[in-house]
Amino acid sequence: MFLVEHVPHFCSSSRRRPRPPTITLSTLAGGISPNRLRAIQECIAAPDPSIRDPFARVAMPRISPAAALLLPLLLLLLSLSPIARVGSHQESGEWSCESDPEVRIEAAFRPGAITLDGHGDDWKDVEGSEFSLLPALDPDEDKEYGGGKMTVKAAHDGSSVFFLLQVDGNYAYSKGENTKCPSVSLMFQIGESASYHNMGGCKVGPDTCTNKTCKGHEVDIMHFSIGNAIPGRLYGGNPIDNREGNGGDRFGHLVDLYGWSPHCRYIDGTGPTGNDSSAQNNWNGAWWHSSFTVHSGFVEEDSPYASDGQKGTYYFEFSRPLRTMDRIQQDAQFTIGESSKMSVAFWYPVNGNPWHGSGHFSINCDWVPLDISLGGSSLTKTASPSSWDAATAFSLLLSVVSLCLSVFVMYRVFRPRSVQYKPMEVALG
Q1: What CATH fold (topology level) applies to the domain 105-380?
Q2: Is the pTM above the cut of 0.85?
Q3: pLDDT tens, 387-396?
């Protein structure tokens, strides 16, 4: 990141200007900011038109011959440095993170409660966690997503896990242009050494990263770009792509990926050492926006589905089996009663500008624990009535009466029977 430095206005249109600085070899060696160099270059290229003598000494700074030879090279190096940083998806300087240890996401046990349609109505009884959305590469509060915070909810039914992402945002949609539409991603830790930072954190380069050189750094990723996805319709795993043995989605770009670092990401079933036909896309999902007035269902011809810029809330809803048939370490596996680690990313075309891959917002600067709760506690809470009704009381009374009758009958059947003595009269003679 370049720091903005005050540049003397020696290119001002005022006739009375401060004396321009003299640039020497020692000045360049000591360092000069890109903004100052840019200002100097502009002055050299376009001197003040109000000065009649274009060769006047005040029209440009005095540059020593040695410094003049080094100036173009220095400008070239400065212009290349930000390009390399963006292309490599890496931050400048040391990475630091102050994560709140109390932050967690709980997947409550809700059997038969969630319909995967992109709507959030059936989630009203599920408690969510609210997060500020900060740039993933520079988590500065001053650069927080302006639309609002993201609410993340999770639930499971004992077989599948469900997620709802809810975030405010003006409606933006451009058919076929994913970077002009919002996009979301979920990431989960697979390998024990996989870090949130650098998407697994494998330090091996893109030409040598494999499941052996990056063993232990695996992360599971689901990415949904809605540029070709109809609101309310299901996307993700489908028979055609799953039959080919990969995690792709040719219809709506809800894809199942894995990775070891930002440089080494692949669709499930593909990789640097060849493909594996046993993989598949285990995710399904849908999206919605609260500004939509049609609830009977959209078709592709209805695009763009609403007017651009309308205020509202985006809903992204996903599901996946708790356990998958993955055998090549490309899917995270969830266990009821245990915790996993996850993160959520969000892309948005801020001010109508297309987003780029590394320009996403994130809910946290580190992993967030995901707790897959046990079903027993939820069932107990659900089945605990506030008061007994008449049917319950009658059933209890009937049970008590039946028990008493049973005891009485058993007593009559098994009570000891005593024979009464009766003397016999015998006549003699």
Answers
A1: Immunoglobulin-like (2.60.40)
A2: no
A3: 456 667 777 7
